[in-house]
Write a structure and sequence with these properties.
Layout (H helix, E strand, L loop, with lengths): L5 E4 L1 H13 L7 E5 L18 E6 L2 E5 L2 E8 L6 E9 L5 E12 L10 E6 L5 H4 L12 H14 L39 E4 L11 E13 L3 E6 L9 E3 L7 E9 L4 E4 L3 E5 L6 E4 L3 E4 L9 E3 L7 E8 L3 E5 L1 E18 L3 E4 L5 E4 L3 E4 L10 E11 L2 E7 L3 E4 L11 E4 L5 E6 L2 E4 L3 E9 L4
Parallel strand pairs: 27-28
Antiparallel strand pairs: 1-7, 2-3, 2-6, 4-5, 5-8, 6-7, 9-22, 10-11, 10-21, 12-13, 13-14, 14-21, 15-16, 15-20, 16-17, 18-19, 19-20, 21-24, 22-23, 25-26, 25-31, 28-29, 29-30
């Protein structure tokens, strides 16, 4: 499947845009950083705060419009090189990541290669509205003229409610420091006359003030096998190295070991815990580790030395897999193989906190993010399929439910329906039903969004 290249405004970047628009503050951008993604492509996330593996950083030279798109521009000097570019980011003066980009693989040759040239990088800075572009600080001057700022603020005032209307009757609800509407401005729960049944009643907002409840992430998992640990997994963008945690399951939820040493050329690997090391001064070759306790070595304590639990060196405990002056790890050096097996997850997240109300006017406040893996719902062929996403409350908590169905909101029972269709009966007393096993059954499912899945290669 061909790679797709794009830019995302990070969560921090979106919040900063909103603050600049509402408070009339300048929006500074100062640097562009490039990275190699640790040798692989990955799918950027709005929650990122840095590149996976930064290899170069430079000042933004200019910002420009090209065919109604706003770009930040920098140039990698000719004398810099020896790396591949697969990711890029725009940063502000406080080193906050504003935009993350999946970049087409581009090789910047090292000067000694004989192919020496500059590399111009353009990254699109997506604006929540065009007025924001006028608040972007010119990186060369690092100032905004008062005339430009006054004109921009006047344009904003004409199109948006004034700040003194925030939080008052007839005005708009304020947004707190966390980017959410404070609870004080959300209608009281259990108030049937205010909260709308069958509906999501509050959630976080995007920079335009629209609901921004859902986010999605595609995660690809690699499978490895070691001689004693067996099968273990890491995310696709993770490079096996010291201190990397590996997992027992493809959901990467159950940690199984931590790498303390690895030789990728010889395909050997050691797992274990790095412990505090102490030495018995009056007893040569006698040592102690935090968890292992006392141990002995035959000749000298070096990397690869065999460790024994007895002074006669008959009861082998393992070998030294990591060592410095005060830290040690004792375990087994294993061989490992890269299986090449890949597992794909498509996670849809409903970002808490949010509030929804059922047909019975019972209001629920969801305080933790809800996550659903929808990879198994992808069509087998190249078609696309639409889904409604619902939230439900069960005995063990809240969950998301995805159904390819039709939602009916009407007084009378639908006449053209299929299995899994939802009927919200808007005739007192209000009720909600799902069509299962050839009958309409009561349900507390409430829709919170829609999404589309494309079939084909997973």
């Amino acid at each position: 499947m061909a790679e797709e290249f794009y830019s995302l405004v990070t969560d921090y970047g979106a919040e900063k845009q909103l603050r600049c628009i509402t408070d009339g503050l300048p929006f500074e951008v100062t640097h562009i950083a490039l990275g190699d993604g640790n040798g692989r492509y990955y799918e950027p996330s709005t929650s990122q705060t840095k590149l996976v593996n930064e290899v170069w950083r430079g000042n933004i030279e200019k910002c420009e419009w090209i065919e109604n798109r706003f770009y930040c521009v920098t140039t990698v000097p000719a004398e810099v090189g020896g790396f591949d570019v697969r990711e890029a980011g725009v940063f502000d003066e406080e080193n906050n990541l504003l935009v993350i980009t999946k970049f087409p693989e581009t090789t910047k040759q090292a000067p000694e290669s004989g192919t020496v040239k500059q590399l111009t990088i353009r990254i699109e800075l997506e604006m929540s509205n065009t007025q924001l572009a006028e608040l972007v600080i010119n990186p060369n001057l690092n100032v905004v003229t008062m005339d430009v700022l006054d004109e921009t603020l006047n344009n904003i005032s004409d199109k948006y409610q004034k700040l003194d209307e925030k939080g008052v009757a007839g005005g708009y609800a304020p947004v707190g420091e966390d980017g959410l509407i404070p609870n004080a401005f959300i209608p009281e729960p259990e108030t049937k006359s205010i909260l709308t049944p069958f509906c999501l009643n509050s959630c976080r907002l995007d920079t335009k003030g629209n609901p921004n409840l859902l986010s999605s992430e595609t995660v690809k998992i690699w499978q490895y096998t070691s001689s004693s640990l067996g099968v273990f997994y890491t995310a696709q963008e993770v490079t096996l190295a010291k201190d990397v945690v590996v997992y027992k399951d493809t959901e990467l939820s159950e940690e199984v070991a931590t790498i303390v040493a690895i030789d990728t050329s010889g395909l050997t690997i050691s797992f274990g815990t790095i412990e505090t090391l102490s030495e018995y001064e009056d007893e040569p070759l006698h040592y102690s580790a935090t968890n292992y306790g006392e141990f002995y070595v035959k000749e000298s304590l070096v990397l690869g030395a065999e460790c024994f639990s007895d002074a006669d060196c008959t009861q082998l405990m393992g070998v030294v897999t990591f060592l410095n002056l005060t830290r040690i790890s004792i375990g087994e050096v294993e061989t490992y193989t890269f299986d090449g097996n890949q597992t794909t997850h498509i996670y849809i997240t409903a970002n808490a906190p949010f509030t929804y109300t059922t047909a019975t006017s019972k209001t629920h406040h969801v305080e933790k993010n809800l996550v659903l893996d929808v990879i198994d719902l992808c069509p087998d062929d190249s078609s696309t399929k639409n889904f409604n996403l619902f939230v439900n409350h069960e005995s063990d908590g809240y969950c998301l439910v995805a159904l390819s169905n039709t939602i009916f909101t009407q007084m009378l029972e639908p006449t053209d329906y299929q299995a899994n269709d939802i009927w919200f009966k808007i005739l007192e007393p209000l009720a909600s039903y799902i069509y299962l096993l050839n009958i309409w059954q009561e349900t507390n499912l409430v829709p919170v969004g829609v999404f589309t899945l494309e079939g084909g290669e997973k």
